[in-house]
Amino acid sequence: MFNTQALADYIKEHRGLKGFGQLYLATKLNISQNCYSKMEQGYSKISFERLFEIAKLLDFDPIEALLVGRDTPHVIKIIITQN
């Protein structure tokens, strides 16, 4: 299982790096700003489909995002991508 709060923090950090507001992302995802905020705070679960949408908008690797907080994310990522 992945760390929901670590994933939420990862998304929030990348949104900040892009200079996007929550409302901008919420609009792109066709959800309310409140719903988006709950995802970023870790109060709402993020589906794989939603994660891939967010990753595309914020230009990050969704698999790496899932591995945040793990001991060996880069090793696991290499194994996943090679198979």
From TrEMBL:
<feature type="domain" description="HTH cro/C1-type">
    <location>
        <begin position="11"/>
        <end position="66"/>
    </location>
</feature>
<dbReference type="GO" id="GO:0003677">
    <property type="term" value="F:DNA binding"/>
</dbReference>
<dbReference type="Pfam" id="PF01381">
    <property type="entry name" value="HTH_3"/>
</dbReference>
<dbReference type="InterPro" id="IPR010982">
    <property type="entry name" value="Lambda_DNA-bd_dom_sf"/>
</dbReference>
<dbReference type="InterPro" id="IPR001387">
    <property type="entry name" value="Cro/C1-type_HTH"/>
</dbReference>
<protein>
    <submittedName>
        <fullName>Helix-turn-helix domain-containing protein</fullName>
    </submittedName>
</protein>
